[in-house]
Amino acid sequence: MNETAAKFCEFDEFLAHYAPLTPYGREEKARGTFYSSPQELENIYDLTADFVAFSRNRAALPAVGATSSASGRNKAKADKLAWHLRHIPELPSDGPASGPAGLFLVHRFLSNFKAVARLLPAPLAKKLGFRWNCAELLTLLDRGAQSGAFHIADSFSPVLAKLRRAITDTDRHLSGLRAERLAGIRKRSGLDFGNLDFLVIAEDRARPLCESGCVFTEPYDAGRVTAKPIMTPAWLELSGERERLRAEEGKAEALACAELWAAVAGAGAELEACARAVELCDRAFARARMARELSLSRPELSPADSPIKVSGARFLPLERTLAGYDLPYTPLDFVFDKRLAVIHGSNMGGKTVVLKTVTLLQLAAQSGFFVPAKKYSAPVFAGLAAVWGDPDDKAEGLSAFGLEMEAFNRAWAAAGEPLLLVMDEFARTTNAAEASALISGVLGEAASNRHVHLMLATHFRAALPREAAALRMLGFDTAAFRKQYKGKTTAGLREKLKTINRFMRYGLAADKSGAGPADALNIAAILGVPARIIKAAERSMEEKNAGN
Fold it and tell me: How far apart are the first and last CA of the chain?
């Protein structure tokens, strides 16, 4: 249900600006939570507002009596916050099975969590749940921290420390025996292995060396072999002892690792609380950055059946497109004071944009975001749905009309709870008479269901119930256009769009006349449809009007 609304209002473009820094925040983004609890939403808005204020403080000019260095410190603090959040890993889900690598992640998590807690203002840290109850565990794990990595240090186990000292001594003794043996081989054969494990020599040279017991060989290529030194019995015996010590070291490391994981498990509840605080912090911080980047404002949640109030609202994908054409964007200002709204208007006059704008605002608000408007006030709905002739909507055996009706059925199935339903050019795939009848039926059913807020944009006319407001786009200013252009046309799509945008009034008003839009021919002419066709269409309309 919400998925149709998200696709209709191009919500993914909005979400592209939402950039959590931690795995926990990114998982929440992927879930795409839709909130229907006003209290939950207000809590999220509060935290976002706290981080917006935090960001403003760091970016603002120094207060009277403050120094520029103080302002710089505020910015540095916020940058550090982002850095530490970015370096918080996800706690390992497989626990002890992840071994020392998992302990490294726990240590890194706690180190960065501690740093974030210190950077946050105390009241905000408290609201987020940053309580530092893992100091003892971090102190323990610090003993294994080494240059950004983690290892099972000697200090974790006396037995482990003793074994490693023995291995070090053994390595020293083995090195001496090896040097002594290689010196003897060099003296007898002239072969200098140095620090190499083998040499590649001619096969005929290797034969007498093998017979003398200096080296053993393995084939290398035609005429050559690899020669490796034959070590003394003392070296071989000591090497075996080293292998035994290494095996004991592995057992001692595993035991120490298990003990460390037991300490981690003992702090499991505290670590889970830390992870929740990290997610909450990351989400709010990311939402605040997004609010600053896109000039978003906090939504106002109103009681059920309240009007939807919109002021200075922007549909961001269109705003961005128009900016690319150097065209101005007209924000939406309107109060939808009835549960049902039927919008008529010109082709390219903005009906669909109105629906997309309100859908984007509502979906953003109920996803916990600030919204692209100066002010937005609306009730909280259990769901949002859009019926709009999705080109990707396919089902075997259904025509375009059948697909449209199936989309409506899926949306209407949610009408048992508070629902915001937007419908763009409903029943466009059938004839005008039946389309008007269908729209009339939908409006009647929606009027009798107080759960439903319906916004419908259409070219068709139908009788409206008293619960519905008849609205229209202000449309194309034909008089102003003809006065300026006097029959001239513009060249190039960019200039044509600029012309339409210049004379199209994108405002929304009450539709009291009941007359249909009459701008299509003007727009077709601007877009370059041949003049003969436009003239013929005008004559046809005149004849039809005369006949009526």
Answer: 43
